[in-house]
Amino acid sequence: MTELVNDKDFVLPGQPLTDERTKAGRFTYVHGGLVRSAVAGMVRIRGQKAEVIPARGPYKPRENDRVIGIVVDIKPSYYELDLGWGITGILRAKKAKKSGKESQVTIGDVIYTAIAFAGVKGVMLKGGKDAHRITRGFIVTMSPTRVPRLLVRDRELQETIERESQCKLYIGMNGYIAIVGPSTKNEFAAASAIRLVDTEPTLEGLKEKVMGVLRRALWEELVEE
């Protein structure tokens, strides 16, 4: 592979990355025999793939994406959920699952679900067993372009944060992440780790840095107690 850029270079949309068409990774495309960047961002050369980590960007709904939405209106046959970024999702007026039971959705509820369809006619959300109400914890936000960083390598960073903080993360590809833990202390520790991933997604040794943030946050709380 002939690389036309170096690892961690900042590139612009359309800029050539390599002449090996089969090496096209995330946020790239092939044109004129070259793999080019589809967005402005940082190049990462990972094994046999060249990909780009976008600098920032809004959320673009895609089918089967897991998302978090807030119920903002109730119609006779459906609910409207705010997905952020000016996007409204439609959830059919069925009951969302809560702790193994059926519970009626109300305005202000936080729903973790998936996208059934996204197109010119709007965004339709999956209901039934795919829609879960989140009634504890709190929500943090991060750039949607950084969310995949939590999920790469078999969700390595997500599992690290959950294990160290003892919290459950409900990760929405729209940049909303619900944190549910045994205490506010643990939830804020998890939020600090997510903040690091959002601001420093290309940091060397990110997993170890995340563990350090979590342990310091939890240890400081223990010392104060």
Describe the structure.
By secondary structure, the protein is an alpha+beta fold. It folds into three domains: 16-54, RNA polymerase II/Efflux pump adaptor protein, barrel-sandwich hybrid domain (OB fold (Dihydrolipoamide Acetyltransferase, E2P), Beta Barrel), CATH 2.40.50.100; 66-134, Beta Barrel (OB fold (Dihydrolipoamide Acetyltransferase, E2P)), CATH 2.40.50.140; 138-224, Ribosomal Protein S8, Chain: A, domain 1 (2-Layer Sandwich). It contains three helices and 17 strands. The protein has helices spanning 148-165, 184-199, 206-224, and strands spanning 10-11, 16-18, 28-31, 34-37, 41-46, 49-54, 66-74, 78-82, 88-92, 96-98, 101-103, 110-119, 122-125, 132-134, 138-141, 168-171, 176-180. The strands form five sheets. The protein has a five-stranded mixed β-barrel. The chain has a three-stranded antiparallel beta sheet with strand order 1-5-6, with no helix packed on it. A three-stranded antiparallel beta sheet has the order 2-4-3, with no helix packed on it. Strand 5 (41-46) and strand 6 (49-54) form a beta hairpin. Helix 1 runs antiparallel to helix 2. The N and C termini lie far apart (56 Å). The relative contact order is 0.12. The mean pLDDT is 88.
Please outline what is shown here:
The protein is an alpha+beta fold and 225 residues long.
